[in-house]
Amino acid sequence: MTIKDTPEEWEVRATDTPFKGNKTSVRTDDVVMPGGSVVRRDYQVHPGSVAVLALDDEGRVLVLRQYRHPVRQKLWEIPAGLLDVPGENPLHAAQRELYEEAHVKAETWRVLTDVYTTPGGCDEAIRIFLARDLSPVEGERFEVEDEEADMELARVPLDELVSGVLAGDLHNNCLVVGVLSLVAARQGAGLDALRPAEAPWPARPFEA
């Protein structure tokens, strides 16, 4: 048996969108089950996101501390953002987020991993990139607002982040998945064996 996720779509008898927000919405589908019964499934419709695990030459990861209202916590995270434009190239979006949130650019990009954040209740797909060969961006910083105006920036050794994840001190999904994926990649075929930065992404198709 091949252990690989595969596309599949069960019959939907009816669909409704009872809530539409600024960036996301809630959809209700009446889905036909294998036994023939029809059940209602509510889920959040999300445009998708990108995140960047930026690794400097000293083995430190660039992280941000930001307030997240739904969980009432300030979380340490890696730079991330929405795919605001349908069909947007995720690499370009990731480069933009790294610049806007950290005022940093990177010369070397790879796909670290692709994940669905909460597939039982949301269709959000996130592509996490590995960015290396970092350098500051020249010119003025991007003007931030709202939660981002209170954001803190740090560079933390990878081992320290791994310890924080396993101790239950760090909870942001992109940071957790990104950090542990980086460790696995290093122990496996190596970072240069990761997928190229513009590898296909069936969950959020894009034009190169």
TrEMBL record:
Residues in Nudix hydrolase domain copies: 44-178
Transmembrane spans: none
A GO molecular-function descriptor: hydrolase activity
Gene3D superfamilies registered for this protein in UniProt: Nucleoside Triphosphate Pyrophosphohydrolase
The name this protein goes by in its record: NUDIX hydrolase
InterPro entries registered for this protein in UniProt: NUDIX_hydrolase-like_dom_sf (IPR015797), NUDIX_hydrolase_dom (IPR000086)
UniProt KW keywords: Hydrolase
Taxonomy of the source species: Bacteria, Bacillati, Actinomycetota, Actinomycetes, Kitasatosporales
Cellular component aspect of the GO annotation: cytosol
Biological processes per GO annotation: nucleoside phosphate metabolic process; ribose phosphate metabolic process
Keyword Cell membrane in record: no
